[in-house]
Design a protein that fits this description.
By secondary structure, the protein is an alpha+beta fold. It has 2 domains: 110 residues, no CATH class; 135 residues, no CATH class. The protein contains 12 helices and 9 strands. The protein has a 4-stranded antiparallel β-sheet. The protein has a 3-stranded antiparallel β-sheet with strand order 5-9-8. It has a two-stranded antiparallel ribbon with strand order 6-7. The chain is globular, with a radius of gyration of 18 Å. The N and C termini lie far apart (41 Å). GO terms for molecular function: DNA binding. InterPro entries: Ant_C, AntA/B_antirep.
Length: 247
């Protein structure tokens, strides 16, 4: 039974399972109006456009909670949708999160090797593992925090991930990690640019990768998207240097 409609959509450089945020907003029975709610959540949790979600002018004539003109839709990855459901802390949120996890499980069951080739699915696996680690840490408070961080790094060592996902695995806010990386000369922005770029020495050390892809906009035009990826080696080094923050 389809509890919330899931569709394939281009987010970042991959076709991934996505949720219309307006549909999720209605299902969760959020008290705030949609525009305020989604903007607050994006700001509060550091979600990034073209990594965690994409936007598009609303169309199709569907009726959603709230009103107004010139509205736009937000299409969310399942990872972002799970987090939004979880932070609502109500029965609807729990129901939605369990539904998304089940949808991911079914998708992976169709092709168990797909997660190794699809960065988006890899991010989903890493987030799911992080949630399991958090549960284990809560159940066993005597575990050394450093050991828990190392455990996450070992499991995440299969591939690269974006900075937002790296922050989730390190258990720091994405904004904190972006600020730290910039201050310690891991990443920078070109003059007049908005995209983060990896410093060449960090690329040569195998700590970061700098990915450039071309994505198609909703109007059919194309744009170049630059993305910094953290390697397993980089994640391990960050865990050591951010030890007091990650603990």
């Amino acid at each position: 039974m389809e509890l919330i409609k899931i569709e394939q959509r281009a987010i970042g450089d991959s076709q991934v399972q996505a949720i219309n945020a307006r549909v999720l907003h209605v299902f969760l029975e959020v008290g705030k109006d949609f525009a305020t709610w989604i903007k607050d959540r994006i700001e509060q949790y550091g979600f990034l456009e073209n990594q965690d979600f994409v936007t598009a002018p609303q169309n199709g004539g569907a009726v959603y909670k709230g009103g107004g003109h010139n509205r736009k839709d937000y299409h969310l990855t399942l990872d972002m949708a799970k987090e939004l459901a979880m932070v609502e802390r109500n029965e609807k949120g729990k129901q939605a999160r369990q539904y998304f996890i089940e949808c991911e499980r079914r998708a992976k069951a169709i092709d168990p090797m797909a997660a190794l080739a699809d960065p988006a699915m890899m991010r989903g696996l890493l987030l799911t593992y992080s949630e399991k680690v958090l549960s284990l840490e809560a159940a066993n408070a005597e575990l050394a925090p450093k050991a828990a961080v190392v455990d996450r790094i070992v499991t995440a060592a299969e591939g690269t991930m974006n900075v937002t996902m790296a922050a989730k695995n390190l258990q720091v806010q994405p904004k904190v990690l972006f600020t730290w990386l910039s201050a310690h000369r891991w990443i920078y922005r070109r003059a007049g640019g908005t995209a983060w770029v990896a410093y060449q020495d960090k690329i040569q050390q195998g700590l970061l990768q700098h990915k450039i892809t071309t994505v198609e906009r909703t109007d059919g035009t194309e744009k170049v998207v630059e993305q910094v990826l953290v390697t397993a080696k980089g994640l391990a080094k960050l865990a050591g240097e951010l030890g007091p923050i990650c603990a």
